[in-house]
Structure formats: C-alpha cells, structure tokens
Amino acid sequence: MSGLYAEDSITRRINRENILLLGGGRALLMQLAHPKVAAGVDEHSDFRRRPIQRLRRTVHMTMAMVFGERETALAAARMVNQTHSRVKGEGYRALDPELLLWVHATLVDSALVTYESFVQELTPEERQDFYRESQVVGELLGIPRALFPTTLGEFDAYVERMIAGGPIAIDERARQLARLVLRPPLKLLPGPVMIPFEVVTAGLLPVRLREAYGLPWGRAQQRAYRLAVAAVPRLVALTPPLVRVWPLPGKSVGFAANS
Q: Model pTM?
C-alpha cells in the first residue's frame, strides 16, 4: 500500500532530515505574525503553557501525511481539519482558506530555507518540485487548488507580499507568544540553553520579521549564525542515517488518533 508521496520524492527527501527541526521556530514565528493566526492559537490552545507542543503536533502530523500509508495520511489530515473546525473567534476562523494558505506557506518556505541553510543547496527544479508536491497536502487541509500561486516564483512573491504589505502585523500578543517559542518554560533546562535556537531562528527569519519581533541581531549573534551555517552542513553530511534522518528510507509511519 503506497502513501501520498513516492519514496524517492523530493518531499520525502527534504522532510526526512531531522535538522529541519531547526526551522520550526521560524515557521511558528511567521505564523504568529498574522494577527488572526495568533488569535486562534492563543484563544484555542494551551500554547502559553506548552508552546513546544504545537511544534511537536505539527511535526507529528506532517510526518504522518508525508511518510504514512495513504489511509494514515488521510486520517491525519482529517484530524487536523476537525481540530481547525472548532477554532473560530471574532474576525477569524481557522478554516479560512487565506489563513490556511499562509500557515502552509510558512511551512513550505521554512523547509526550503532550513534545508538549504543546513543540508545542501537545491536545484531550481527541485525547489519547484517540492513546492508543487506540497500542494497535495495543502489541498487535503482545505486549501482550494485555485488559491495556490501557480509557480514557485509566484509563491515566493506571495510570501514577500504578505510580509511587506499584506496582513502581517506583529503586535504585542505575537511578541509574547514568540518569547514562549524562543524561551519555552522547560522544567529541567534553564532559559539560556535555548539561546542557540534563538540565534538560529533569528538568522533564518526574513529581516522584516526579525526586526519587527525585536530579536537581538548584533555582531555576536551574526557571528554565531554564520558559524552554524558553515559548520552544521558538514556535520550533517558526516552523520550516519540512523541518527540523521527519520524515518529511515523504506520505513512507514504509524499514526494514533490521540497523538
């Protein structure tokens, strides 16, 4: 029984890399930069108490849809849609196709940026294929096919337009939630442990958003980020598959409805 994506697809190749977790903070902060998304997250989840749980759930559902058998993938999509159907408030609803497109775009864009920063460069054809294949999951999650930008170039322009002159506007709520992403309340670990993650997130973010969030970006942060971009790809290339990727090629992903 096959899944939504072929084993040798660019979607599986990119999403299999564990290092993509470094881009999770970028994707979350881009999502929270949309006031309606931030409102939905803040008013309909336990984000303020357990911010990392949202990222964990997103990763789990993504893995189920990308690497699971077809029924597993469809079940994960149904669960996401059912959850979204209950998220609505003054001036917003999670099933709004425009909001769904923005959240989807943050995940696609962050995957490409993180992969090319910390694994290897992609060819224009590979980038285009990844974007095209991402629409399979996007449609399952309620985005009408006609709403997707047609090409990767148009998609990039959409992201830039949203940030530069669209509805993206980082308010105090977004800044509060962002602080929880960058310095989550971890019982066993002190806040400073997350500083490297904060630096990487700041470096991966579009400049406009980094500045709007007020993230530190002085010489020390820039130097640390440049070091990470130079060193991490070399470490990734030397890391054995058993540690580097998940799931291992040829392995499917199970899915539990209560995960």
A: 0.93
